[in-house]
Amino acid sequence: MRNLLGLCCEKCWHSPEKACEHFIQCCSEGPLCHHDQECIDNIKLLKKQLRYEEHDKPIIIVGMGTCGLASGAGKVKDAIEAELKKLNIEAIIEGTGCIGYCAVEPIVDIKLPGKDRVSYCEITVKEVSRFIQTTIVEGKIYKERLLGAHGNTDPDVKQIDKDPFFEHQLKIVLANCGIVNPTSIDTYLSFDGFKALDKVLRLMKPEDVVKEVIDAGLRGRGGGGFPTGKKWEMAMKEKADQKYIVCNADEGDPGAFMDRSLLESDPFRVIEGIMIGGYAIGATVAYIYCRAEYPLAIERLQNSIDLCKQYGLLGKNILNHGFDFEIKIKKGAGAFVCGEETALMGSIEGKRGMPKPRPPYPTKSGLFGKPTVINNVETFANVTSIILMGYKKYSSVGTATSKGTKVFALSGNIKNTGLVEIPMGITLRDVVFKIGGGIPDNKEFKAVQIGGPSGGCLPESVIDTPVDYESLKEVGAMMGSGGFVVMDQETCMVDVAKYFLTFIQEESCGKCVPCREGTKRMLEIIERIPKSYKNNGDKMSQLQRFKGIVHLQRLADVIKDTSLCGLGQSAPNPVLSGLKYFKHEYEEHLYERKCSAGVCKELLTFEINNEICTGCGLCVKVCAPGAIVGEKGQAHYVVEDKCIQCGMCFETCRLDAINVN
Amino acid sequence: MVQLTINGIKVNAEEGMTILDAAKSVGISIPTLCHIKNLEPTGACRICAVEVDGMKGLTPSCAYPVQEGIIVETNSPRVRKARKTIVELLVENHPQDCLICVRNKNCELQDLSEQYGIREHRFVGETKSHAIDISSASMERDPAKCILCGRCVRVCHEVQNIGAIDFTNRGFSSIVTTPYNKGLNVSDCILCGQCILVCPTAALREKSNIKAVATALYDRKKYCIVQIAPAVRASIGEEYNMPLGTDVTGLLVTGLRRLGFKKVFDTNFAADLTIMEEATELINRVKNGGALPMFTSCCPGWVKYVEMNRPEVLDHISSCKSPHEMEGAVLKTYYAKKMGIDPNDMFVVSIMPCTVKKYESERPELKEDIMPDVDAVLTTRELVRFFKIAGIDFNDLPQDQFDNPLGESTGAAAIFGTSGGVMEAALRTAYFKLTGKELENVEFEEIRGMDGVKEASIPIGDMTVNIAVVNGIGNVKPILDQVQSGTSKHHFVEVMACPGGCINGGGQPIHQKPEKVMKRVKVLYQIDSTAKNRSSHENESVKTLYKEFFGEPNSHKAHEILHTEYFDKKKLLRS
After folding, report:
1. Share of chain B above pLDDT 70, in %
2. C or N: which end of chain A has fewer Cβ atoms within 10 Å?
3. Residue A558: which of B81, B124, B125 has the nearest Cβ?
4. Nearest Cβ partner of B172 from A520, A525, A544?
5. ipTM for the complex?
6. Nearest-CA residue of chain B relative to A335?
7. B207-262, pLDDT tens digit by residue?
């Protein structure tokens, strides 16, 4: 038996043209239409093989998500294949997605027959032969790269669940990521795949599905936090000849890669969620709007859609329940604003992606003027889990108003960068220090930026805030889509505000005045802050520098109040939260022209320590404006007026005689 | 009905009405910039934002429908702060040269700045800089003055269905321009100027020909003649604060004479002449199997549209020149000879409600022997500017009459300026030509009005003539599709590129007063209903012209002087 489509024998006739409503059930309990012990055993065996539970050859699983590939997983996989060929060993080599511990990729798992699956991290090409020798040939643990075992049969081997990175996470949505082969529909089916869809089609009416999602308390994971069930209910109630359901996979926030990982590592889960949503609201066509910068995700999605069609899980009369459904992929074209739902719909319609006023809301009149529901990738993945486990179990996780888990993309100055899934309600402190492992190089924690350009920077004083929609809003940030950037003391908050404002200005669609003109003016005001007195020009522009700060609050208020879409409305957030929590830093830049973090180049002063300087003259040679003077053999001196803060002298000096303030 | 509270006043509004309209109904005015009546609200400028109790942020009143029980504040400190800041942001990124700008004193940004008391430059910074596009013969585009309200884009896309300009780039570099920022002259633009009529600033304006006209007027060698389109007399009074719909023909004649024109003629004369030629041409085609339906050719925007998009249909268009071109041609041949003037010394100026006429007058095929039929075209707006420069106080002028012989006209000529007018005029004469009898009722109600496509079947003798009138180039596609697929049942189709006809042309006075179109149209129908002669074939001076010069309509001489040809300009766009 090769795959679950053929199922057990000729008695099974399920195909896309002639669907059998028991197909999914048979995949786990089958066969149902006839009793044959051999068939039962065949199905059981295939499933065990797909789940890596029953095999006579060693299985090697290489993490091939974008994070793994970027760390060299492709080359490692090739090296492993070459090594096995050299040693004439037969083994099954498969790729998997991202397990979330991106900081230690490439991750390679070894599953020996009868033993637990063991994960190893940071495998390099150089050590592949030693690695294979130890794990495959000798069947031992390769201790120097051990991450953990998936199981506790051997008490001497550290369990991966006990690793502090994984211990505090709760994997619901990411359960399959880094575990299964994302290109195989049979694997997905053997891991309870499409059971939720089957349950919905067989046992639930659309209203029941909607009620389940409402009772589960699922809120939109794209950042808005709008109750998903309520949105579905509004669309379900509309009467129309055509409805659409759209998956927003545009993920434009800098530093966010949750959706990318999910789509690369477990695309079928997302597709199943979209189908359940389509059934609930009465849509027969779905669009997945995926940004073009995610070619691997698009490839995996297309592959999944094609396989679903082959297995009769997409198309006409799915599972013989009269449910027609098709999914189209629409690629984005490099616009952050197209993550906004009305701009996204405009983009699908072939127009320039510019938001439109609401009402009318998309649930009433959306794509092509028809009732449309738009949800984020992670939201759809949650839907599948909710149907599988039931609303009671799902809503037991999280807080009173924020149910379930949230996936965050940890990045920045943190030891364990990667993808984590945490139950709502755990504190920021736990995420940064317990899961994230704290700040590398013994530096100090300064702030964490949540929510991308729409969010705010939260300092140590509020680090015990629980992660849920309301609490984060109260402290001036927002959940956002899951971007979580940690900053240490060498990050300048003025620079951070400048970075996000620059991003917003470049991505603003230009339609409405407050965003197009207002964010430009805000950016100009912020840009003037870290300017050296040398570059400040005449008295007029010096006056502008101070005037700008005075008017900053007014400008921010109006932009927030009047912008057409979320991009503009949240554009002032980085500045406002910066002013709220790091006012002293702004004042230091403004009045003392000093940057304590050492980031704003124009405010740095380079000084030569004349007790260390031997007058070797190396720095003079690399100083382009000729700002260093001194006699050979005598301590040299930096002429501040001429210094352009390029830092070449600092890098050239072999005696560390140059201080940067 | 829905009841809501606006500024403490209880307002009863119809369901589906916007807060903006509901406020207006009780005398509360909220400023707008990107709003165009009868088009879907776009919510771009945010200036109409008001405070609605319970909603986060401010709400755009132009887009939000009234809800039962909502409490709205249109003038709270929060609203005023927002409105003022938005205007300040617009003013800041705008060239500060009001004093030398063509829209000085008629600019919506000036109005807003004055209304909201902008007194300082709060947010100083980079200003946008773009080159001015002077590539076309009719219009100039000045993106530096553009405040990106988007009205021009929407009119071009949603009303005219052409889409020659659109938003490009993002953020601060946003600009409204043609594809690849190429000149208008190689874009899809037909120069109808509807965008100019909705532009709040001077970002879009016509090319000015005042200098050429002034130079000719002060050149002793030149014999300057001027002609006025029907639509001008119905609208120019608006620029002098006269009520909408005032007929100022008599004042116009005086004013033009005082500018120095030797003769002041009426384009309406040539409109009658055009009907003689066109009706004859139509009857010819019907009788002898020519290309049907025949399309009118008096609208140069329509002709340009066909040349650029559907050159296969060009042979359906009447070969008649447009009225003002015919008048210029008659002036430089018949009249020049009659008066003993060297046509090279003649300088013919047309005052038109239209921007495309400038392009039309420069078409090479309308320059007989390197001598143009019309030397310069001035829009209604340009004439007003010229009057100002010349110190002519329009309001205090005595009345005067057109010169002859090119001053006599019938009622049929007057209605040329409105949609359906050319068709009505043609029917009156076609009926007479085919049956020898006069129409009992010369008014065809079924083809008057603002509908996009008006169709009728008119019994003429033992024939039934199927006609259609297309009001606005945005509505022409189905008719053209029928023609190309061979399924058209029409004999004669009138097409006006500007919605409403020439009275709403791109050269007309710019303001957003409602009913401007209807009031102007009324003037023309009034002139028609009170005219001595209401059909073109009754024009005595036209009869004389044929007797003395052309012989009969469509004669060889008439074809040489009064008819023209068209060209395939599709490849212009492919380059």
Report:
1. 98
2. C
3. B81
4. A520
5. 0.89
6. B170
7. 999 999 999 999 999 999 999 999 999 999 999 999 999 999 999 999 999 999 99
- Closest in A337, A551, A560 to B122, CB measured: A551
**Is B88 part of the annotated catalytic residue set?**
no
What DSSP designation does A446 have? E
pTM summary value: 0.91
B298 is catalytic: yes
Tell me what percent of chain B is helix, strand and coil, each rounded to the nearest 5: 45, 15, 40
The answer to whether B342 and B317 have CB atoms below 8 angstroms apart is no
Helices (H), A282-416: 295-310, 341-348, 377-389, 391-395
Residues 336-395 of B with CB under 8 A from A: none
CB atoms within 10 A of CB A284: 15
Instruction: Point out which residues pair with B349 in neighbouring strands.
Output: B226, B376
Residue A523 C-alpha, separation from nearest chain B C-alpha, in angstroms: 10
DSSP per residue over A449-486, as a string?
A: EESGGGSEEEEGGGTT-BSSHHHHHHTT---TTSEEEE
Q: Answer yes or no: B365 catalytic.
A: yes
Out of B57, B126, B167, whose CB is closest to A510?
B167
B80 and chain A in contact, CB less than 8 A: no
CB < 8 Å to A516, chain B: 148, 171-172, 174
Which candidate in A361, A515, A521, A545 is best for mutational testing of the B interface (most B CBs within 10 A)? A521
pLDDT digits (tens, 9 = 90+) for A132-149: 999 999 999 999 999 999
**pLDDT bucket at B504, cuts 50 / 70 / 90:** very high
CB A529 within 8 A of CB A590: yes
Q: Which residues pair with A109 in a beta bridge?
A: A61, A119
Contacts of A569 in chain B (CB under 8 A): 57
Which DSSP string corresponds to B434-486?
HHSS--S----GGG-SS-SEEEEEEEETTEEEEEEEEESGGG-HHHHHHHHHT
CB distance B349 to B316 below 8 Å: no
Tell how far CA A109 is from the center of its chain: 23
| Residue B17: partners with Cβ closer than 8 Å, 6 or more residues away | B2, B65, B66
Beta-strand pair A372-376/B175-177 = unpaired
Q: What is the DSSP string of A51-102?
A: TTSS-SS-EEEEE-SHHHHHHTHHHHHHHHHHHHHHHT---EEEEE---S-G
Q: What is the mean pLDDT of chain B?
A: 93
Q: What is the pLDDT of residues A204-262, one digit of tens each?
A: 999 999 999 999 999 999 988 999 999 999 999 999 999 999 999 999 998 899 999 99
Please name the residues in contact with B153: beta carbons below 8 A apart, sequence gap of 6 or more: B165, B166, B167, B176
Is the pLDDT at A615 greater than 90, yes or no?
no
Is the distance from CB of B234 to CB of B524 less than 8 angstroms? yes
- What is the per-residue pLDDT for A634? 86
Q: How far apart are CA B98 and CA B369, in angstroms?
A: 43
- Give the residue-averaged pLDDT of A29-57: 87
The alpha carbon of residue A551 is apart from the nearest alpha carbon of chain B, in Å, by 7
What is d(CA A254, CA A166) in angstroms, rounded to the nearest whole number? Answer: 24
- Give the position of tokens 């009520």: B243
What pLDDT, on the 0 to 100 scale, is given for residue A1? 56
